[in-house]
Prior knowledge:
The complex is a heterodimer of chains A (338) and B (454). With 338 residues, chain A is an all-alpha fold. Chain A has a single domain, classed as Formate dehydrogenase/DMSO reductase fold (Up-down Bundle), CATH 1.20.1630. Helix content of chain A is 80%, strand content 3%. The N and C termini of chain A lie far apart (51 Å). Chain B is built from 16 helices and 8 strands. In chain B, helix 8 packs across helix 9 and helix 11 runs antiparallel to helix 13. The radius of gyration of chain B is 23 Å and the shape is globular. Classes of the chains: A mainly alpha (338), B mainly alpha (454). At the A-B interface, helix 2, helix 3 and helix 13 of A face helix 2, helix 3, helix 4, strand 2 and helix 15 of B. The structure holds CIS-heme D hydroxychlorin gamma-spirolactone and protoporphyrin IX containing FE (2 copies). Chain B: It is a multi-pass membrane protein. Chain B: Its main location: membrane.
Amino acid sequence: MSNAILAISIIWMFVFMYAILGSVDFGAGFWGMVYGRLKDNRAGALANRFLSPTWEVTNVFLVMLVVTLVVFFPSAVTSLALALLLPGSLVLILLTIRSALMVFAYSAPRFQNALSIVSGTTGLLIPALLVLVLPVVAGGFIDPADGRLLTGKLFSSRVTYTYLAFGLASELFLSAAFLADYSREAEDEEAYLVFRRHAIWLGPLTLLVGMVTVLSMGPEAGWLRANISENSGWFLASATAFLFGYSAYWWKTKRGQGAPRIAFTAFILQFVLASYAYGVSHLPYMIYPALTLQEGITNPSIFRSLLISYAIGLAILVPGFYLFWRLFLKDKRYLNRG
Amino acid sequence: MDELTTARSLFGSSLGFHIIFATLGVGLPFMIFVSEIAYQITKDREYTLMAKRWTKAQAILLGVAIPSGTIVAVQMSLLWPKFMEWVGQVIALPFQVELFAFFLEALFMSIYVYAADRLSPLLRVLSVFFVALGGSASAVLITSANAWMNTPAGFDLAADGSVINVRPLEAFLNPSFPSAALHVLVSAYMTGAFVVSGIAAWRMLKGKQDEALYRYHRKALMLSLTVGGLMSLATAFNGHWAGQVLHENQPEKLAAAEGLFETQAYAPLALGGIADLEEGKLKGAIEIPWMLSFLADNRFDAVVKGLNDFPRDTWPPFYVHTLFNLMVAIGSLLILLAGFAWMVRWKRGKAPMPRWLLWVLTTTGPLSVLAIEFGWVFTCSGRQPWTVYHLQRTAEAVTDAGGLLTWFVLFISLYLLLAVATVWVMRAYFRRRPLNEELAALHSGKGREGESLG
Lengths: 338, 454
Ligand code: HDD
Ligand code: HEM
Ligand code: HEM
């Protein structure tokens, strides 16, 4: 495996992890807004309880993603920075307001209401802005003359909105599926049924919007569509994983209707397969047509030192993540708190 | 403003904002740790209450430290993409490793704040320790990147200007890294301590009626003055070292800091004054003969380079002389102040501290935060016109994207909003948990052990 492929695989891994964690985190903000405002609603309380300790860690994944991209593909930064100044800066502002309120509301309950509205709306806006990166790097929206973003074209293009719809649908779907599982873990059947219901209508919708997105790719991204159809086997496998997980909502188990843990796990597999296929189809370009992976990769000595730092860093952090998981995602005392 | 100036202003203010919360994020956990130790030594449980209340303050500050740090990290790529190409090729390591430090801090801060009631005592202390370790490590790591910009090392340039033979570890441990990293650490510990002193002095002025409260605050004051005094002493000694590193590696920065135009042996140390560029003279300064030569190289006959030895278009801006003077002045003043306050306390014993002294002590927090700001603007602006010393000019690093002014205005408004909100939340939070109630609970033995920090 070449350095470039290894590096992009690591980045892909972080993109994937942030996509899942971010979906769940931002989606929980949205569900928290929808249900939290009704008094005594367990679903909203549950979404917010998950959110409180996890956003910090999710945020580090975002920074990780940016930094990893810069250190492995330094020459990609110039073109990306130029194209992404607008969405990037907007994301920063929204993210800052959201994170600050998240902490403030915990310390001063008077912020509670403002928080739930802000974290709900930014929970939709931030992922929408982030997902814009995909059509931009797929080609057609960067001015070949000066490298700036063609904002007008981006926002008047149909394909942009299909990407947006896909991003939002999968965000809400994944978070509903996660929260369904989380409520089952918290033994909160009422909340479980709420999130199960949402997962059930959002799942097929996500699949549908995904297909429409590929079909409506513009002429500039024709190369990508062609590659995607060559990789259709992977996408079929992904759809199979979805169907399997989807059916798990109707399995009869000891703890009631449906097996949300199995469903959510299968959905993750679905996203692994689909985003792997999308990533492979994107090769060899980082930004079409300006930059290929091979042109962008950093020098071998830095590359090696980075790999070593990953090995050491992970060895130190894994126990921390384990403790974190035990305390917030598994511990009944936390899950069931009133 | 042209786009370059706007980019510099935008980035400088983002960093200037982040650094307040980041420095406290390094300094406060250290104070928390010290007060835990003080408890172990004195067995006075009021020290654990201090630790607990400071942790709550720190948790609130983190709500701004983290997003503002995210802003800085992303803006670095958005505004200085061609500098980041350098970063990626040579000085990537600290940026990458810093993320592990962030993870450490973020993971254990969540654990400490949201799960304190479910942790064993050992795990709790360990969590605080990891929070403090994460903060200090991230400060050291980011300083390595900044030090590398001042004294780039660890690579060679090929004939065509491309980077070859990269040695990541050598880049990481570049010549100014040891002095700078230590300086950033001790100055952050000093700032964390003096911010505590400032607040304690303020509370002593306001809450004199209640004897128990007064004693609690006096304990906090004396503890933080001890730490702050020692750390400011360390900062000054270590700053002297940093100056010598400048003498060796960035002579024009030292010359600008001292307002020195003519290269000379027996160079005088200039305090205050304003540099006149037209005449090439420093006006209105107090000069201490021979002192600069001695500071730069421990010898009175050391030759210190003046600005006239360097091409005019590579001179740093002249306000760095003032910034440097202010930083040093604040450092020296705070050493004296901490020493003096200790003397008064020792002489007067149990009698109340004089009110004028308390008033003076309330300024220690703001002053040390100011010194941090001056120091950073000094090191960044004193490097101008270079982003990477003698290799890349700031004008070459900036993005080609236009329209930065809008973003500048938006981000400044965001920072103002956050600053106001932070103060407001702090006050609201501590008003809901008055100290006298917590103290009473502590002494009646009903101190809610293991209460989560909510
Ligand atoms: C509480 C804050 C504080 C205080 C009281 C001082 N410093 Fe400082 N100084 C810093 C906080 C700081 C800083 C913000 O942390 C800097 C910016 C970059 C760095 O490495 O540390 C800095 C930079 C810095 C540099 C520039 C390093 C470079 O550009 O490479 C020098 C030469 C000094 N300091 C010297 C001193 C001296 C002689 C002091 C005498 C008391 C002093 N500092 C007090
Ligand atoms: C000397 C200057 C700096 C110091 C002492 C410092 C220290 C800190 C500290 C203590 C935090 C809180 C960390 C946490 O809890 O996760 C933080 C956050 C952060 N800082 Fe800084 N920082 C400095 C400058 C910078 C610079 C120049 C950058 C960008 C290149 C940066 C990037 C960040 C990021 C991305 C975060 C958020 C991490 C997260 O998402 O948790 N910092 N910094
Ligand atoms: C944390 C406190 C810091 C503050 C308050 C600060 C302040 C500033 C200011 C005011 C400028 C504009 C300089 C000018 O145009 O005259 C600047 C530039 C810059 N700083 Fe810093 N800085 C800080 C730390 C850092 C660190 C830790 C790094 C790198 C890791 C860094 C990297 C840069 C870069 C890349 C620029 C733009 C290029 C340049 O002007 O040299 N800064 N900073």
